[in-house]
């Protein structure tokens, strides 16, 4: 026990002696959480929309004003030629072109129907889909207002029936994307920092030549491994604490669940990540190699974790691969506990899977570490 405490004390001294390491551990994660949480958004705003108003009527102007009143659109000066508007889209100066036909007002009043052409730049398919929903909603609202104000409903002058829908938003009442993204980004930062530091830790000893000296001492393998990794386990919990404080104070993320459950799950999750970092360091000779391999796996883990792309939207084979992704289970867990207030039994499957991964990965890491007395 004294040997383990001595190694832990030595590791903490080495960490706090290196000023660049302190910046990496404490300052960078805070900046990343503040920046990424504001930049990574699912909201599509500042959509540049151009109208080709061939009718120049009161109704066409009312339609254009409906888009101007929306905070999601930036309405450009109208064009009188669709060709000019298309040229603007080709230059990347507009995202949507709405072509209002001639006799728009007359057809709407006389025939009770008309057609509007909407052209959307769909290079980014996801953004184009959201833009299409926005445009459709505004046009439908405008159409309902026209029906209510018009005197030409039908021959018997019946007023059309309207269905009012009152949605109830659970877990994120304000529909603020930060409420959804901040917990996931916090998971990402905790994972990246602990994985990179642990994977480069033993490799650094190899580069300095001190690992060979340690290997010929009476220190047991488990004593050395625990002593080297325990400080990073503590630092992972410290980063989690700082991140939770920022999430609550800065972004007002609700924390409906048991916070001790979050720390318990994170403690087990960190054992998994530290074991994975140890396994990487056992099979690399330089810190550059360890960093490259760790980053290679992190890119895959991040993109297939459900943090930015819903797992349900992935192909079946990709959804199957995400079952091997530890970040997926932590992202699901922290969102369930913080945002939905889920209890122990609701998150038990995630905890059991992470525990199984931790036992397996740490077993492989300890087995692969070679020590000669």
From TrEMBL:
InterPro entries: ABC-2_transporter_component, ABC2_TM, ABC2_TM_bact-type. One of its GO terms (cellular component) is plasma membrane. PROSITE patterns: ABC_TM2. Keywords: Cell membrane, Membrane, Transmembrane, Transmembrane helix, Transport. It holds the Pfam family ABC2_membrane_3. It is found in: Cell membrane. GO terms for molecular function: ABC-type transporter activity. Its main location: membrane. The keyword Mitochondrion does not apply. It is a multi-pass membrane protein. The chain crosses the membrane at residues 180-203, 224-247, 259-280, 292-311, 347-369. Residues 136-372 form the ABC transmembrane type-2 domain. Belongs to the ABC-2 integral membrane protein family. This is ABC transporter permease. It comes from Flavobacterium rivulicola.
């Amino acid at each position: 026990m004294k040997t383990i405490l001595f190694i832990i004390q030595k590791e903490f001294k080495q960490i706090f002696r290196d000023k660049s390491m302190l910046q990496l551990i404490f300052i960078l994660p805070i900046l990343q959480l503040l920046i990424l949480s504001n930049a990574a958004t699912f909201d599509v705003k500042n959509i540049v929309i151009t109208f080709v108003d061939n009718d120049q009527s009161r109704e066409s102007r009312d339609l254009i004003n409906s888009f101007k009143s929306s905070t999601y659109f930036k309405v450009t000066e109208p064009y009188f030629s669709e060709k000019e508007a298309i040229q603007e889209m080709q230059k990347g100066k507009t995202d949507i072109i709405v072509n209002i036909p001639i006799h728009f007002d007359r057809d709407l009043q006389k025939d009770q129907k008309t057609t509007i052409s909407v052209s959307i730049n769909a290079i980014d398919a996801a953004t184009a889909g959201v833009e299409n929903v926005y445009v459709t909603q505004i046009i439908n609202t405008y159409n309902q207002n026209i029906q209510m104000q018009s005197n030409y409903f039908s021959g018997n002058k019946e007023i059309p029936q309207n269905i009012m829908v009152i949605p109830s938003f659970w877990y994120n009442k304000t529909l603020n994307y930060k409420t959804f993204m901040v917990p996931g980004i916090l998971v990402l930062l905790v994972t990246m920092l602990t994985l990179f530091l642990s994977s480069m830790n033993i490799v650094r000893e190899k580069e300095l030549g001190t690992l060979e000296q340690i290997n010929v001492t009476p220190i047991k393998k488990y004593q050395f491994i625990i002593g080297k990794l325990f400080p990073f386990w503590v630092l992972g919990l410290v980063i989690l604490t700082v991140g939770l404080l920022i999430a609550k104070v800065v972004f007002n993320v609700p924390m409906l669940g048991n916070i001790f459950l979050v720390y318990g799950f994170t403690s087990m999750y960190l054992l998994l990540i530290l074991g994975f970092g140890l396994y990487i360091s056992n099979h690399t000779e330089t810190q550059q190699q360890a960093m490259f391999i760790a980053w290679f796996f992190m890119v895959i883990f991040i993109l297939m974790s459900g943090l930015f792309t819903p797992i349900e939207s992935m192909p079946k084979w990709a959804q199957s691969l995400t079952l091997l992704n530890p970040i997926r289970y932590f992202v699901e867990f922290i969102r369930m506990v913080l945002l939905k207030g889920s209890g122990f039994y609701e998150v038990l499957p995630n905890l059991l899977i992470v525990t199984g991964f931790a036992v397996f990965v740490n077993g492989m890491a300890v087995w692969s570490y070679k020590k000669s007395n």
